[in-house]
């Protein structure tokens, strides 16, 4: 029967026992020796009496060389590592107390075991006898022998097959035992629920089995590829960086150490590691050091060489509380040193060595050990000196800005190039062979590979670039930007090409040293300012993940580890970690099994879409009621909607039944007992509530920061739980569960909208996933707040755990489209007074791919629109500002930084298939070729300016032609090339105009053409774009629903094409319309003749007019049937007849742009509404009756009739021609009979 080695309580049954778990130490085990043992040995047999002999182990003796407490070594775990070259061994890195201090220590955990589980075919363990024996064993736990023997008998065939599988893979020693385990995940071949399985334990030094094994007697194998490190963390319940205790440690002599730590011990087996450590509460202080390198490009080798290095460090950083600025910004607490070398063997400039001596002899130099600045003769000696200083420092954490993608990458490559001895001192594990230093894509810092991270094992890498990207929302994440915004420091850039110039004089060379030190200090300051170490430690402790992986920004891995800990403790078979290919193979196999009998051809099925994104419907996004709202708008938001849904409906792997047909799963049956997933989330939510309660009552500043960091970590963890369900690369990917959660979210949002509008009687103008916006039609804050309270009360009484809250109140709002709005938020300051704050969501101004000039213009327009001033004044002010912008641009009064566009690299520059068409990629490729540090790696932001090249006379070469990508340059390139000029026309037409015109779309009194005219652009180009835009299309739809009188409004037809006619001599001219003839603008005899032919009296006959009108009308119909589609993205316009079925945001199927660079939605260039309006426009130009009906005075009407008499026949002929065609247009007709028949049927 199953004695198991899983730590902790037994959640499933009374059959498991944690006390016996070793070779030969479990009654009824099969020790699995392949050959027949000698007669005197019982190994290899299933002994009925359960007696298996084992060799006695050598007793451990404390030699007094270790600082033990109660016989165990207290050990604060910082990092852990597993080497492929030494399978079965895990290296634990941390700190141990010793004489009132703490020193680095490496614990080598040897003799680890691998545990795998074979799931038998259904029916293997069945029968009345088994049921009886299980009941007896449950009633009398001491009498399990009969049950064990019966289980082994039933599993005889399965065990024989398992032995064969193990032997095939070179595993000759193992232990087999039946145990009870639960399964609740996504493999269709494995039965759900609690069941008997075979557990196999063998040395992890032996080969692992491949994933996906199946056999005649078993349906699956679990844990085959589980890393030994993960197994140790789960078995010993190690929850992140914390105190653990090591039993029976043996000190390793310094000459035999495999690490660079001050102390090294050996520990045999994972059971000598315990997560309980008595007497240790506070984490030890850590040595945190920031490293920065300055490089120069070698002209022949075209590689970066290190010319200077600086390390700024804090010798004692307390992890349990954030450091105050005084603590990390003081010369008393900070220490630093720098190393500089000669350049290309040239001597240092005169006086530099004297400056080095003076620096080291200064008070600051003495405080830093007397060698604050070291001058070296070569790059090799610089590297050796740097390694020696790092080894003596023995930093626990290395900090830097993009340190893994640049500084460490360059450092390791140069160490390898110079064959520096003991190069592995950069990390904490001794090595002789360099790992592969190839790029790793986005695995860490946008460029570091696993080889680099392996070399750094034992030292934590805190990359401020990664931390800032996760915690902040900025246009770019360069050190200069972050230092200016968050530290109030100005950083000057120093390009690698400018470094050799610093060697011209001693003062300049000292500037290089100071710049290197400053960059290291800025990185350290940013890490302390953002509390990256305390926050990442809290996240690691919550999830049970390694601290090093949390610092890498692996959010999905954190949640994975949390769920692994939770399900392991409850004795579940855990889903295996699969590669991308293995996931696709599994998806194909399950698809084939599901459709084995349907007779359809099998299609390729992939486990997930692009980047593992969800391939199912997401949250509900309502169609917004666009416009400018000048009364208060309420924003009500469900608190943590998806985690709350999981709790409300008890959604878990264990409770949701997955339909075989792929439909949305039904909700679980109501239950008082929470399943695993909702219980974990509830625990996190309750803990956060408790911490927030403590935070509200805490007055101590440092303690408040501690509590705030803890509640942030709890919030981030709880809100990320749902994500693992829908992320196809996650081990806990469960599409049915994710679909069920989002489906419930859609139902809840829609039912909330219905409730608010029907029961409360308020209008919902927009809703998105977990929030709704409610129009109040009141201006007083108290009245609006009372309405919000009523909505909250009505909604919350429907649910037990789901809660909707009043999230914000807006004084006025500009609602443009889905996920795009701006408003004036009514907020409260510290004194409780109401303050107004502008808030913008999804607008162009908050995106980084718009230049500052466009954002400034957009913000000005937005401020005017939300000012509450009369519409005429708003429009006038916007027009005036645009004219002013044009004047400043023409005069060269706009600074260069206003033209910089930022765009992020979503993959490595060389991996873009359409790199030639991507401006930022072209700039990044050129920078990478020049060995620039920033703007070259995946995840980084590339700044560029669109330029034209001019000749000596200042005129554009080739007329300014060339693709956009060809004309994109970095600011450094622009400064270095005097022939480049900013392409002003591009910025006005494609940056400023789109931003402002989208904001002004709902505003009366202006349009895209008028705004273009203010910017000095050709307004004619924007008439068609406006007609194709969604806002104008809505206006045309409204016109067609209106009355006939409304259809005659000139504004409705301002974007229609004119009625072009052609005279006998081929002159083409527009027909002005009957209204202009009546007003006296055109003489009746000249109406059907070109203006320059009026003197000849030549005009078109009635037949000619009818024929030409018919032709123009047919051209409009033909344009409609072309089926051309245009995008509403003015920055990246697309015109095509191809229908793209690619999913894009909230676009309806077929409305996504075929150009992935275009963010717009596609719409018909000539819609049904536009065609009907165009035909109606022709009709109104030629219809004398309609024009005469507009005249109210009878005398005027008689005079007008007389005036039209000469052309009346031609007008009627043209009118009838277009009317015949328009009457065939079905758009104008509504079949009431069909409508009422449908209604009646539905009733």
From TrEMBL:
Residues 221-477 form the DNA-directed DNA polymerase family B exonuclease domain. Its main location: nucleus. Residues 1-65 are annotated as: Disordered. Residues 42-59 have a biased composition (Basic and acidic residues). Residues 9-18 have a biased composition (Low complexity). Belongs to the DNA polymerase type-B family. This is DNA polymerase. It comes from Coccomyxa subellipsoidea (strain C-169) (Green microalga).
């Amino acid at each position: 029967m199953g004695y198991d080695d899983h730590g902790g309580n037994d959640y499933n049954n009374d059959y498991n026992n944690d006390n016996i778990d070793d070779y030969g130490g479990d009654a009824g085990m099969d020790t699995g020796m392949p050959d027949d043992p000698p007669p005197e040995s019982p190994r290899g047999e299933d002994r009925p009496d359960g007696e298996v002999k084992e060799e006695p182990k050598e007793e451990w003796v404390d030699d007094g060389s270790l600082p033990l407490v109660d016989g165990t070594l207290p050990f604060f775990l910082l990092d852990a590592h597993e080497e492929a070259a030494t399978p079965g061994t895990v290296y634990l890195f941390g700190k141990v107390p010793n004489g009132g201090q703490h020193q680095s220590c490496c614990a080598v955990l040897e003799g680890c075991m691998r545990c795998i589980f074979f799931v038998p075919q259904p029916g293997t363990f069945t029968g009345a006898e088994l049921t009886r024996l299980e009941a007896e064993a449950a009633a009398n736990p001491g009498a399990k022998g009969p049950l064990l023997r019966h289980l082994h008998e039933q599993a005889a065939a399965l065990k024989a097959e398992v032995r064969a599988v193990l032997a095939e893979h070179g595993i000759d020693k193992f232990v087999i035992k039946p145990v009870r385990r639960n399964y609740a995940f996504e493999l269709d071949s494995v039965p759900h629920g609690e069941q008997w399985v075979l557990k196999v334990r063998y040395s992890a030094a032996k080969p692992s089995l491949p994933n996906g094994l199946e056999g005649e007697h078993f349906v699956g194998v679990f844990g085959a590829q589980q890393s030994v490190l993960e197994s140790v963390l789960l078995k010993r319940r190690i929850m992140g960086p914390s105190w653990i205790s090591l039993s029976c440690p043996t000190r390793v002599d310094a000459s035999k150490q495999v690490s660079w730590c001050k102390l090294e011990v050996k520990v045999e087996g994972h059971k000598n590691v315990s997560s309980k450590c008595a007497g240790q509460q506070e984490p030890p202080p850590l040595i945190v050091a920031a490293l920065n390198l300055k490089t120069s490009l070698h002209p022949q080798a075209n590689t970066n060489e290190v010319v200077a290095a600086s390390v700024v460090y804090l010798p004692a950083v307390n992890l349990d509380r954030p450091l105050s600025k005084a603590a990390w910004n003081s010369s008393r607490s900070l220490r630093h040193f720098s190393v500089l070398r000669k350049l290309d063997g040239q001597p240092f400039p005169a006086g530099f060595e004297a400056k080095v001596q003076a620096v080291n002899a200064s008070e600051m130099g003495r405080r830093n050990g007397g060698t604050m600045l070291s001058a070296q003769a070569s790059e090799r000696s610089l590297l050796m000196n740097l390694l020696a200083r790092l080894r003596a420092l023995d930093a626990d954490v290395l900090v830097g800005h993009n340190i893994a993608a640049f500084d460490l990458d360059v450092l390791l490559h140069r160490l390898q190039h110079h064959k520096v001895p003991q190069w592995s001192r950069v990390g904490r594990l001794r090595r002789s062979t360099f790992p592969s230093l190839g790029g790793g894509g986005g695995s860490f810092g946008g460029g570091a590979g696993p080889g680099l991270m392996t070399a750094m094992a034992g030292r934590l890498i805190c990359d401020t670039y990664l931390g800032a990207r996760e915690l902040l929302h900025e246009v770019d994440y360069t050190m200069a930007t972050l230092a200016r915004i968050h530290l109030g420091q100005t950083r000057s850039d120093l390009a690698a090409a400018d470094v050799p110039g610093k060697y011209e004089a001693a003062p300049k060379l000292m500037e290089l040293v100071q710049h290197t030190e400053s960059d290291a200090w800025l990185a350290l300051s940013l890490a302390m300012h953002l509390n990256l170490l305390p926050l990442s430690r809290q996240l690691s402790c919550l999830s049970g993940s390694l601290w090093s992986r949390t610092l890498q920004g692996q959010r999905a891995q954190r949640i994975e580890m949390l769920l692994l800990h939770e399900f392991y403790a409850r004795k579940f078979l855990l889903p295996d970690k699969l590669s991308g290919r293995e996931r696709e193979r599994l998806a194909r196999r399950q698809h084939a099994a599901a459709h084995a009998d349907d007779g359809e051809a099998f299609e390729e099925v992939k486990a997930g879409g692009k980047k593992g994104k969800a391939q199912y419907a997401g949250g509900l996004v309502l169609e917004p009621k666009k416009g400018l709202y000048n009364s208060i708008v309420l924003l009500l938001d469900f608190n943590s909607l998806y985690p709350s849904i999981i709790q409300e409906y008890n959604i878990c792997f264990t409770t949701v039944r997955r339909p075989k047909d792929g439909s949305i799963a039904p909700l679980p049956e109501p239950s008082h007992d929470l399943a695993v997933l909702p219980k974990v989330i509830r625990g996190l939510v309750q803990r956060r509530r408790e911490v927030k309660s403590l935070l509200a009552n805490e007055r101590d500043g440092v303690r408040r920061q501690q509590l705030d960091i803890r509640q942030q970590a709890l919030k981030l963890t709880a809100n990320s739980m749902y994500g693992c369900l829908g992320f196809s690369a996650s081990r806990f990917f469960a599409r049915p569960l994710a679909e069920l959660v989002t489906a419930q979210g859609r139902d809840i949002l829609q039912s909330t909208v219905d409730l608010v509008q029907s029961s409360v009687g308020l209008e919902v103008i927009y809703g998105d996933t977990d929030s709704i916006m409610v129009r109040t039609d009141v201006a007083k804050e108290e009245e609006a707040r009372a309405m919000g309270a009523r909505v909250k009360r009505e909604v919350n009484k429907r649910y037990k755990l789901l809660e909707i809250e009043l999230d914000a109140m807006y004084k006025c709002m500009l609602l443009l489209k889905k996920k795009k709005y701006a408003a004036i938020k009514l907020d409260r300051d510290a004194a409780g007074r109401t303050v107004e704050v502008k808030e913008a969501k999804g607008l162009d101004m908050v995106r980084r791919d718009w230049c500052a000039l466009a954002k400034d213009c957009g913000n000005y327009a937005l401020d005017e629109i939300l000012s509450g001033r009369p519409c005429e004044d708003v429009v006038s002010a916007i027009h005036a500002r645009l004219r002013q912008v044009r004047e400043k641009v023409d005069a060269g009064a706009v600074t260069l930084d206003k033209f910089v566009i930022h765009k992020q690299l979503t993959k490595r520059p060389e991996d873009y298939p359409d790199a030639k068409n991507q401006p930022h990629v072209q700039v990044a490729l050129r920078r990478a070729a020049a060995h620039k540090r920033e703007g070259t790696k995946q995840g980084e932001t590339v700044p560029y300016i669109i330029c034209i090249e001019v000749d000596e006379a200042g005129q554009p070469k080739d007329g300014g032609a060339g693709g956009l990508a060809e004309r994109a340059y970095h600011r450094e390139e622009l400064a270095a090339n005097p022939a480049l000029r900013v392409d002003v026309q591009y910025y006005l037409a494609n940056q400023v105009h789109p931003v402002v015109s989208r904001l002004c779309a709902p505003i009366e009194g202006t349009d895209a053409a008028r705004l273009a005219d203010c910017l000095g652009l050709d307004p004619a180009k924007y008439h068609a774009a406006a007609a194709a835009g969604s806002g104008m299309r809505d206006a045309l739809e409204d016109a067609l629903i209106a009355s006939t009188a409304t259809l005659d409004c000139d504004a409705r037809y301002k974007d229609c094409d004119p009625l072009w006619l052609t005279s006998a001599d081929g002159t083409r001219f527009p027909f002005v319309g009957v209204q202009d003839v009546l007003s006296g603008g055109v003489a009746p005899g000249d109406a059907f003749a070109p203006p320059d032919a009026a003197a000849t009296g030549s005009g078109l006959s009635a037949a000619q007019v009818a024929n030409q009108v018919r032709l123009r009308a047919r051209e409009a119909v033909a344009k409609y049937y072309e089926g051309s589609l245009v995008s509403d993205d003015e920055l990246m316009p697309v015109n095509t007849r191809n229908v793209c079925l690619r999913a894009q945001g909230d676009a309806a199927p077929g409305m996504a742009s075929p150009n992935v660079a275009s963010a717009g939605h596609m719409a018909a260039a000539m819609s049904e509404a536009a065609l009907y309006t165009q035909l109606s426009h022709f009709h109104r130009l030629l219809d004398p009756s309609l024009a005469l009906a507009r005249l109210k005075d009878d005398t005027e009407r008689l005079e007008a009739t007389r005036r039209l008499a000469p052309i009346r026949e031609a007008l009627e002929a043209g009118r009838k021609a277009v009317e015949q065609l328009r009457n065939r247009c079905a758009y104008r007709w509504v079949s009431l009979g069909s409508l009422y028949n449908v209604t009646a049927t539905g009733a």
